[in-house]
Every structure is written in C-alpha cells, then in structure tokens.
C-alpha cells in the first residue's frame, strides 16, 4: 500500500499540552511519517489549557462557521490552526465554547466537565470529519488515537462511507493507557442514532452508561487495524483486540519516563511523584531559597581561599575548608526528602519505522 497522505486524529499533542509519553508520541509520529515523504494532516481539540498566543493559533475563517446539531442543539464549529516547528507541520484545532473553555484552564475539560464527555467526543469527531474534505486531500491512512476519537471509525464507516475522503482509507485505531473513570452518558446511543448511526451498530450500548471498554469495542468494530501506543494498555483491551482478529502492531516502543538510574517509571508512578512534589511545593520553595543562601556562603568562603592563596596561613585555609564542607553537608542532609522528577526519554526512530511499515502492509 502506498502511503501518500496520512490523517492523524489525536486527543493530545505536545507542545500544545505538557510533554508526556502520549503527547510527545502524538507529535513525533506524524513528523516521522512526514519525513518518510507522506503528506500529513493532524487534528486535536482546542482545550482551554492551550495558550493560543504562545502557540500562535489563529482561526481559519473558510473552514469555520458550520453548525453541528447534537441532541437537538446547535453548536458552531470553529477551526483554528498552528504550524508545528521545525517540521512546518500544520495542526488543526476543533473548538466550540460549549465544550471547550475560551480562557486558560488548569485542567482539561475532559476532567473538569466529565458529564459532557459524550457530546464533547461527538462534536470533536464530527468537526474533524466535516473539515477534512475541505482540505482537498484523500488520506491513505487515518489514525485515531485516544478515547475522545473512538467514535470516529464508526462515523466514517456508517455515515461518510461514500465520501472520497474516507471511502478507501485504512482506519487505524491507536491504543493508549487513557481509561476514563466516569462512564459516558447512557443516552449516547440515542444521540448517535439522531446523527444517523444505525441502531444495530449500537445495540451493545443502548440505554447503558458507556465505559472505556465498550467505547473501545465500538472503535474496533469499524477499524481496519490497531496499534498499541503505550506499554500500559489494560489486558482487557488487548483481549478485545485479539478477539477482533484485526491486524495488530504490538507496542513498538515510544517515549517513556526514567529515573536518575535510567529505570523506567510508569505513567502512574510519574503522576504519584508529581502529586508528592505538589503537596511539598511550599517546602521545596523554602528549601530552594535556603540552598541559595548556602551557595552564597560557599562563594564567599571560596573568595577568601583565593585571597589567601596557596601560601596563606594553613590553619586559616583548613578552617575555611571545614566551613565549606559543613555547608555542603547541610545541603545534602537538610534537603526535603521528595523524589526527583523523572525525565522523559524519547527515541522516535524506535517506533516511527515499525509503524510506517505497518501502514504499508495494510
């Protein structure tokens, strides 16, 4: 299969959101596929947490303005775009102030407003699908990554199957360790039927609160292939993939957190460290101020050593050396016992090449 154009529909992408294994993966994979000669388009939600000015987002007037009806309510679709440097890759953002706040938020709307997550997913997916044909490009592969994109394969196969932009594309569903704790609204099936999704496609969720496993199954029912993009995907999810019989690429590697010794730190362990450090924030700030004072004292003592010179009073030099050693001992022993923040390790060649070859095999 020739890979001419690839469409990425992603839940989170760096640098628009903080660097994590997922956001970095979703940034570097499209760039790597582009470096293989494919034309790449990328979409993500325009969360309130994204700083539009810093990231130079601007509205695309010719793509904006459509009203999307969800559960009998109109929601204007606004498309924004930014250019990701240095690859000069364009990232399109789906926005509406009913589902995404228009000021800088501390947490994502998927966490702060969970009751709307079903409609937020519908709006995002439909916004992408309505916009893609206007960009004049027919993708060979469409990769959907993250639970907020899970409805996209069903929409493309059930409602837009005759659209040239989607008709012949291979849909790849990307698995992450991104389960959500609050199930989606039990009226999700009704809302999807209002959009034209056949009832027989929704029998498994009709009248039920939809959890992450049920949502994954909907995606698998309409996908052509699956990629595991995180080492921490739930075993139950991988069982669904095995039962589906779809072409499957197991985890090919990717960005990960590592401690000072180079040991792998899981996402859960990383978050626990972040929470611990946040709880000790005031203590750490006070310690940083004290450590700066200690370092200033050491600088003064080192200056005194320089003034004494190598031929200076040996007893005085020893006193200064002892004082420096004492301060350094205080720095080592008085520091708060808070774990150091792990670093993010990334080698994109490890996973770009296997995924590109997997695309070609479809």
What does this molecule look like?
The protein has 362 residues and is an alpha/beta fold. The protein folds into two domains: 5-254 and 347-361, 3-Layer(aba) Sandwich (Rossmann fold); 281-334. Helix content is 41%, strand content 17%. Strands 3-6-7-2-1-8-9-10-11 form a nine-stranded mixed sheet, with helices on both faces. It has a three-stranded antiparallel sheet with strand order 13-12-14. The chain has a two-stranded antiparallel sheet with strand order 4-5. It is elongated, with a radius of gyration of 26 Å.
Characteristic terms for this protein:
single chain; alpha/beta; Rossmann fold; 2 domains; nine-stranded mixed sheet; three-stranded antiparallel sheet; 17% strand
CATH topology of the largest domain: Rossmann fold
Order of helices and strands: EHEHEEEEEHHEHEHHEHEEEHHHEH
Low-confidence stretches: none
The assigned CATH architecture of the largest domain is: 3-Layer(aba) Sandwich
Q: Strand fraction band?
A: 15-25%
Spatial arrangement of strands, main beta sheet: 3-6-7-2-1-8-9-10-11
Radius of gyration: 26 Å
Q: What is the SS-derived class?
A: alpha/beta
Identify the CATH class of the largest domain.
Alpha Beta
